[in-house]
């Protein structure tokens, strides 16, 4: 089974909600980078409920890549910060 996740609101302003759907106890990482590859956020987790709130108020306006990675693979989506 793959990684299923969503992030909202997109575009975001001050807070981004990330919903991850995995098997209970599965390890995963949430990483956000800008388009130059600079990391603006990184978290390690073991799956329980998969609900995360990221404070985006300090991020510069523009495009970001939100990536969720597990042992099974990686998925990413583009985010816009306004």
Detail the topology: elements first, then pairings:
Elements (H helix, E strand, L loop, with lengths): L3 E5 L6 E7 L5 E8 L4 E8 L4 E5 L6 E9 L2 E9 L1
Antiparallel strand pairs: 1-2, 2-5, 3-4, 3-6, 6-7
Q: Top keywords for this entry?
A:
globular; 82 residues; mainly beta; 4-stranded antiparallel beta sheet
Description:
The strands form 2 sheets. A 4-stranded antiparallel sheet has the order 4-3-6-7, with no helix packed on it. The protein has a 3-stranded antiparallel sheet with strand order 1-2-5, with no helix packed on it. The model has no long low-confidence stretch (mean pLDDT 95). It has 82 residues and is mainly β. It contains no helices and 7 strands. A hairpin with a 6-residue loop joins strand 1 (4-8) and strand 2.
Note the overall shape.
Answer: globular
Strand order of the largest sheet: 4-3-6-7
Order of helices and strands: EEEEEEE
Helix fraction, binned, reads under 10%
Termini, distance in Å?
Answer: 33 Å
Q: DSSP helix count?
A: 0
Give the beta-strand count.
Answer: 7
Specify Rg, calculated over alpha carbons.
12 Å
**Content of β-strand:** over 45%
Secondary-structure-derived class = mainly beta
The oligomeric state is: single chain
């Amino acid at each position: 089974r793959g990684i299923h996740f969503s992030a909202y609101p997109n575009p975001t302003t001050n807070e981004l909600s990330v919903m991850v759907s995995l098997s209970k106890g599965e390890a995963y990482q949430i990483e956000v980078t800008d388009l130059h590859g600079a990391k603006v956020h990184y978290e390690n987790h073991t799956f329980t409920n998969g609900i995360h709130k990221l404070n985006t108020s300090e991020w510069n306006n523009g495009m970001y890549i939100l990536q969720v990675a597990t042992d099974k693979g990686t998925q990413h989506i583009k985010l816009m910060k306004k």
